[in-house]
Write a structure and sequence with these properties.
mainly beta; 7 helices; F-box-like_dom_sf; F-box_dom
Length: about 350
């Protein structure tokens, strides 16, 4: 591109190109590479290309258990034009990896790896990988601490829309099963990592009650990271009961807050619930079994009334299991389903207006 064209105009032209071109543009000059890798460009690019949103699905083959990712365009051609996504080398070294979350076009993966030359006990290291599939760039983030018996690490990830700065929130808590056996309760330890500073720091104030347990089910909406959580309560007879809730973290103020659930959701087994988002609204997905059918209720938060969740629709399907993976931008749930006589799962989309399931990929 001519040097006579102002830099700001060059940035606008680059922003309008497809993601595949950005990979090539990064090799043109140091200036272009710096532009494309910047947080500001990432946010502007995602806003401009929002109408062609892509969804990435993680899966593994039952035979070789190799982890793979495939990308789909979120439109009427969904799952008919999927293509494989190249997984970064950093992600391939992770064991027991999981997708923490996604925000502003970035994915956060988490797992552990072993350091060669160390004893088995001291060789385990935890790592998060921030991955931008559009430009095929990834960054490894060492997660402090080591895996210890009785303790568990839960991460949260989001890109603050105000600061345009990727943030990882690490919560160390006592595993609920170990806590119930040992009767030992330990306060939360919360650490925050921002990509701009490249370091971790401890949050020591405004921490939730130590009896509250965070789960891996999470979603990012605006400047908030939400986790599905439950409070472990001690009954009068010495036993335990739980109360379900949602824990939020404001990435700007760096404060935790509890989002209460209605009684019908708060008082059932926490293993039957997860959270998601529909049309940028907080949603709760409730699972149940009715005879041979699996039932999935989708509840959406009503912003007009505090802590009110309204049922959006109910899915009643004759599968051995169903699990919500998320929603299309038009509000249709994407689900993983398994038949009673098949080991492999299938990817389906439920059409709420028509009341039936379309099987797209298996």
């Amino acid at each position: 591109m001519s040097d006579n064209i102002p830099y700001e105009i060059q940035a606008e032209i680059i922003k309008r190109h497809p993601a595949k071109s950005l990979v090539e543009f990064r090799s043109v000059s140091k200036q272009w590479k710096s532009l494309i890798d910047s947080r500001e460009f990432l946010v502007a690019y995602n806003i401009y290309h929002n109408q062609t949103q892509r969804l990435i699905v993680w899966y593994e083959y039952p035979v070789d258990t190799e982890e793979k990712y495939v990308s789909f365009i979120d439109d009427e051609t969904f799952a008919k034009q999927g293509f494989a996504v190249t997984v970064p080398v950093l992600a391939k070294v992770l064991n027991d990896s999981r997708v923490v979350g996604s925000s502003q076009g970035l994915l956060c993966l988490y797992g552990y790896y072993r350091v060669p030359g160390h004893s088995r006990h001291n060789s385990v290291r935890e790592m998060a990988v921030l991955w931008n599939p559009s430009i095929r760039k990834s960054v490894g983030v060492a997660v402090p601490g080591v895996l210890r018996w009785g303790l568990e690490t839960i991460l949260g990830f989001g890109v603050c829309p105000i600061r345009s700065d990727p943030m990882i929130v690490k919560i160390t808590q006592v595993n609920v099963n170990w806590e119930m056996r040992s009767r030992v309760s330990v306060p939360w330890v919360v650490e925050v990592f921002t990509l701009s500073k490249g370091s971790w720091r401890i949050l020591s104030s405004n921490l939730p009650n130590k009896s509250i347990k965070i789960t891996w089910s999470q979603v990012v909406i605006d400047r908030f990271i939400y986790w599905f959580a439950f409070d472990k309560l001690v009954a009068a007879d010495g036993g335990f009961s739980t109360k379900n809730m949602i824990m939020s973290f404001d990435m700007t103020a760096e404060e935790f807050r509890v989002v209460d659930l209605p009684e019908n959701l708060a008082n059932q087994s926490y293993m039957n619930l997860s959270i998601s988002k529909v049309w940028e609204s907080l949603a709760v997905v409730e699972y149940a079994t009715n005879m041979m059918n699996q039932v999935c209720n989708v509840w959406v938060r009503d912003h007009g009334v505090q802590n009110l969740f309204k049922k959006l629709f109910t899915i009643n399907a004759s599968y051995a299991s169903i699990r919500s993976l998320g929603f299309t931008k038009s509000g249709e749930p994407i689900m993983e389903v398994k038949d009673y006589y098949k080991e492999a799962a299938a990817l389906v989309v439920y059409e709420p207006s028509l009341g039936y399931i379309n099987k797209y990929w298996d």
